[in-house]
Amino acid sequence: MKLGSETGSLMNHLYSRMVVGEPMPYVGMGATLLSWTDRDPATIVEVNLAKKYIVVQRDEAVRVDSNGMSESQEYEFTPNPNAPRMIYKKNRKGIWKRHEFNERGRLVLAHGQGLRIGGRDKYYDFSF
């Protein structure tokens, strides 16, 4: 994710580039969707090694702390099998980028959230 044009969060920018040493994706592994300033939990539901992409679905997140509108937030996550499926593929730098199938059935780059695999995280920015 490009800081300033694809994300307004330094943390999300850094998370999107933390790919060195990341684990191999597998079905059921946690992931984090990276937005402008928010982060949302997800689960990997498909790994296509032949075409080198993964499919994720956004998880449900329920806040369990009582910190109010603060930076300190704790959540519990549960998979949501009814959530839309999103396709991610690594670019040449190893950064996960969102893709979609075009009318010819080919994967093409789509605009959207970044991705970090290997763990679930949720953050809601109250300043927006």
Write up what this structure looks like.
This protein is mainly beta. The chain has one domain (10-117). Helices cover 5% and strands 38% of the residues. It contains one helix and nine strands, in the order αβββββββββ. The chain has one helix at residues 10-16, and strands at residues 30-34, 39-48, 53-58, 60-63, 75-78, 85-90, 96-101, 107-109, 114-117. The strands form two sheets. Strands 8-7-6-3-2-1-9 form a seven-stranded antiparallel beta sheet. A two-stranded antiparallel sheet has the order 4-5. The model has no long low-confidence stretch (mean pLDDT 89).
Individual helix count: 1
Spatial order of strands in the largest sheet: 8-7-6-3-2-1-9
CA radius of gyration is: 15 Å
Question: What is the 3D shape?
Answer: globular
Distance between the termini: 20 Å
The total domain count is: 1
Q: Structural class, please?
A: mainly beta
Stretches with pLDDT under 50, minimum 5 residues: none
Count the beta strands. 9
Overall mean confidence score, pLDDT: 89
Beta-strand residue fraction: 35-45%
Keywords:
128 residues, mainly beta, 1 helix, two-stranded antiparallel ribbon
Q: In a nutshell, what does this entry contain?
A:
The protein is mainly beta and 128 residues long. The chain is 5% helix and 38% strand.
Write the layout of secondary structure elements.
Layout lengths: L9 H7 L13 E5 L4 E10 L4 E6 L1 E4 L11 E4 L6 E6 L5 E6 L5 E3 L4 E4 L11
